[in-house]
Specification:
The protein is mostly helical. The chain contains 13 helices and two strands. It is flat, with a radius of gyration of 29 Å. This is Dynein heavy chain 5, axonemal.
């Protein structure tokens, strides 16, 4: 009835076949027994073991709100009060925001980082420990040595993973803009509405984080708003590719309609609903009645031309798809 935990199984793929045989050939097994396997994605992982398992993935949180919630969920009240210096709590939040930012930029591909670095919780923990030690040893009269803080964050703690010169410049820019005496002023913000909250307990910070937007504009991370177009396009393509890849590959599904029959049925439905092409003579006559040189009329004509292209392309694609299913294309 115990649980077996096997970690990093991508390093021992040969053993997994033996494990699969052991599990499937064992005659008596306790109902409470479970086998947990942790692994990285690997193309040679035994597909039979993968298909018979319940899969869990540990993905990084999406967005500033989710990232900060995950970070502060691991922060205890004792950790928040480990230092009496007034700079401690704002700097802890700033490091958490930096940690979320460097992870979130990865989703934008080469627009975010030239090289996708594997920033993880160890980088955040090491950075927080450095800030704590620095404040403990700080001379109150001189204050925080910001050059040291920026260097440690931009060149050592997070910068130690960075190998590209432009990525290093970006990280140092974050450290320079976000870490300094100005971060304690009332006007400081990472981006509009993204400020450093003033709280005494972990719950205070979590309540503030809960108010942040669920979806962040790319400008929060220092990117142009159009960067989100590329990200959304790649995400949609990846999602659709995943859906297609997990579709059953056999032509028949045990008495039910084949995949080709389902697709052909949907294509027929869409072709029935598709409106006919615009009659250019009728369009021209109607536009002349409205006033051919009016700006709204010119705009309408352009939109009609674009819609005509869409209708034609959809009709051609669906017709070709039906011919391909019938083997006549």
């Amino acid at each position: 009835g115990g649980w077996l935990l096997l970690q990093n199984c991508h390093l021992g793929l040969e053993f997994l076949s033996e494990l699969m045989d052991t599990i499937t050939t064992t005659e008596s097994m306790s109902e409470g027994f479970r086998t947990w396997i942790t692994t990285e994605a690997h193309p040679e992982f035994p597909i039979s073991l993968l298909q018979s398992s319940i899969k869990f993935t540990n993905e990084p949180p999406q967005g500033v709100k989710a990232g900060l919630k995950r970070t502060y969920a691991a922060v205890t009240q004792d950790h928040l009060e480990v230092s009496n210096m007034p700079q401690w709590k704002p700097m802890l939040y700033a490091v958490a925001f930096l940690h979320t930012t460097v992870q979130e930029r990865r989703k934008f591909g080469p627009l975010g980082w030239n090289i996708p670095y594997e920033f993880n919780q160890a980088d955040f923990s090491a950075s927080v420990q450095f800030v704590q030690n620095h404040l403990d040893d700080m001379d109150i009269k001189r204050g925080v040595n910001w050059s040291c803080v920026r260097y440690m964050l931009g060149e050592v703690q997070y910068g130690g993973r960075v190998t590209d010169d432009l990525d290093k410049a970006l990280l140092n820019t974050y450290a320079r803009v976000w870490f300094g005496e100005h971060m304690f002023s009332e006007k400081f913000c990472f981006y509009k509405d993204y400020v450093i909250p003033k709280g005494k307990t972990v719950e205070d910070y979590l309540q503030y984080i809960e108010q942040l937007p669920v979806i962040d504009t790319p400008e929060v991370f220092g990117l142009h708003p159009n960067a989100d177009i590329n990200y959304q396009t790649n995400l949609a393509n990846e999602t659709l590719s995943t859906i297609v890849s997990i579709q059953p590959k056999d032509s028949s599904t045990g008495g039910r309609e084949t995949r080709e029959a389902v697709v052909q049925h949907l294509a027929d439905e869409m072709l029935e609903k598709l409106p006919p092409d615009y009659n250019p003579h009728e369009v021209k006559a109607q536009l002349q009645k409205m006033g051919a040189i009016q700006p709204i009329t010119i705009f309408l004509r352009q939109e009609i031309d674009r819609m005509q292209h869409v209708i034609s392309r959809v009709r051609t694609t669906l017709t070709d798809l039906k011919l391909a299913i019938d083997g006549k294309l």
